[in-house]
Amino acid sequence: MKADNPRQLAKSLTSLNFDNRFVRELPADPDSSNQLRQVHRACYSRVWPTQVAAPQLVAYAAEVAELLNLEPAACESEEFAQIFVGNRLLPGMDPYACCYGGHQFGNWAGQLGDGRAINLGEIINQQGQRWALQLKGAGPTPYARRADGLAVLRSSVREFLCSEAMHHLGVPTTRALSLLLTGELVTRDMFYDGHPKEEPGAVVCRVAPSFTRFGSFQIFTWRNEIEQLRQLVDYTLRTDFPHLAGPSIGVYLQWFEEICRSTATMIVHWMRVGFVHGVMNTDNMSILGLTIDYGPYGWLEDYNPDWTPNTTDAPGGRYRFGNQPQVALWNLAQLANAIYPLIGQTEPLEAALQLYGVCYKQGWQEMMAQKLGLKKFEPATDLALSDELEKVLRLVETDMTIFYRKLVDLVPQDDQDDDSLIAPLLDAYYQPEELTDSHKRQISAWLRTYLKRLAQDGLSSAERRKRMNAVNPKYVLRNYLAQLAIDKAEAGDYSLVNDLLQVMRHPYAEQPENEEFARKRPEWARHRAGCSMLSCSS
Ligand code: AMP
Ligand code: MG
């Protein structure tokens, strides 16, 4: 396909094979006006994106385009920009916003819904896969509550880059096809402190097998709309869990167990790579165990399990790094309450919730064994080893990503003093001068125990390196890197967005030319908004 052949471009875009099963098979809101309202007995409301002035492509993810069978030239076309900003609909698109509820920060918030997300429809690609397309920031919907339905460039860069970075890190996630500017300004008071500013508006096109959330089920149970609850559960079974049999109490339970397992897997991945979601409300929990809704998320720099990137969450720290496994369980318990009317027994739901704990523990142990380069996690020795490691990581400010990545460079030698033992890890310390002799003794004591444990294991160092480098990333989307990309993009230069997208494609590879993107947070970013502090304002 050539970029200069508009006919063929049109063909690549217009031959997208839409099959809008969600709207076809689920109850619709009969009202199609775009006005705020409570929507009863319906899964969605039809709504059109708002027209914008001047769409402009900032970046697109070629891998996601490929999932949709779109070639690069099509993505770079004017038509693409018009379509994925929401100005133009393709034949087969049938836009709608979903109704859902949710617990926000532990409190039931009633109806939330897609306030600024508009689904365009689902396509079946050439491999027979179903992909739902969703614009975020394409204007208000009946669920916009008092907000404008828009998104700014800052938060859209963050969502776009992080979705793709997470995917390449091997973390289950929704994907992002494109990031476009709208050509319009949007007013945001970033820290809700009376300092509103105009920011460039943007739209991200998200892509996932489905965007169904825990809150999509909760809303029906809360409203005692049990028939609609059953319809959505049965639909989800058919569409997102086709390997399960037709509906029955037993299958509903199997389904819930599977959600418990996949959620546990997702959280283990977050803990592995140092990702903090920041707003684990039940409306931000995917039924498919995908990371969804990238808002005030952050990446651990210095290893601090009490850290939350979200300023709104700072007082309680509900969504802090170390609490994510507990919150996921709490959220699953809310989902269990939501589907209870279809099951009528509490014991099997409680058993499934127990299963979450079992899966999480097992997954976490396997993950730790991999991060440490052990053949297998042996609780007899490795529980103490990992407990002690946690303490070592918290002694002074220690970069989690660099520490694990460099651990593989330890060289076992006889009679090493503390300094030479620690030397390969020094880069992980934010302020190496903070390391006192006592700290060094503690760190090297752990390193010696660890080296002994490795010796018992008997893996060759080449094999160990291969295993460790496959799970300990060299590159993550550090908070300050995303912010640098935003600063440039706001000044009209999209190069860093695209460079970061490229670097994050291979997070486990050594990329000598991109060493700068593996560096720990510079001092200037320690207290800078967007780097260490984020808000839900987006
Ligand atoms: P979040 O915390 O981003 O998951 O959002 C919570 C709820 O607020 C969801 O129902 C969103 O759709 C809605 N929301 C967030 N920002 C906006 C906005 N600018 N316009 C309309 N709805 C929004
Ligand atoms: Mg949300």
List keywords for this structure.
single chain; alpha+beta; five-stranded antiparallel beta sheet; binds adenosine monophosphate
How does the SSE layout of this entry go?
Blueprint lengths: L5 H9 L6 H5 L18 E3 L9 E5 L1 H6 L4 H4 L2 H8 L10 E3 L2 E4 L2 E5 L5 E8 L5 E7 L16 H17 L5 E14 L8 E12 L5 H9 L3 H15 L8 H25 L1 E2 L21 E2 L24 H20 L3 H26 L6 H17 L4 H8 L10 H5 L14 H21 L3 H9 L9 H12 L4 H9 L35
Antiparallel strand pairs: 1-3, 2-8, 4-5, 6-7, 7-9, 8-9, 10-11
Helix pairs in contact: 6-17, 7-8, 7-10, 9-10, 9-11, 10-11, 12-15, 17-18
The structure holds adenosine monophosphate and magnesium ion.
Care to describe what's here?
Among the domains are: 6-214, no CATH class; 374-458. It contains 18 helices and eleven strands. It has helices at residues 6-14, 21-25, 62-67, 72-75, 78-85, 153-169, 214-222, 226-240, 249-273, 324-343, 347-372, 379-395, 400-407, 418-422, 437-457, 461-469, 479-490, 495-503, and strands at residues 44-46, 56-60, 96-98, 101-104, 107-111, 117-124, 130-136, 175-188, 197-208, 275-276, 298-299. Strand 6 and strand 7 form a beta hairpin. The strands form four sheets. The protein has a five-stranded antiparallel beta sheet with strand order 2-8-9-7-6. A two-stranded antiparallel ribbon has the order 1-3. A two-stranded antiparallel ribbon has the order 4-5. It has 538 residues and is α+β, with helices and mostly antiparallel strands. The longest helix is centred in the last third of the chain and has 26 residues, at 347-372. The structure holds adenosine monophosphate and magnesium ion (MG). The site of adenosine monophosphate has 19 residues, from loops.
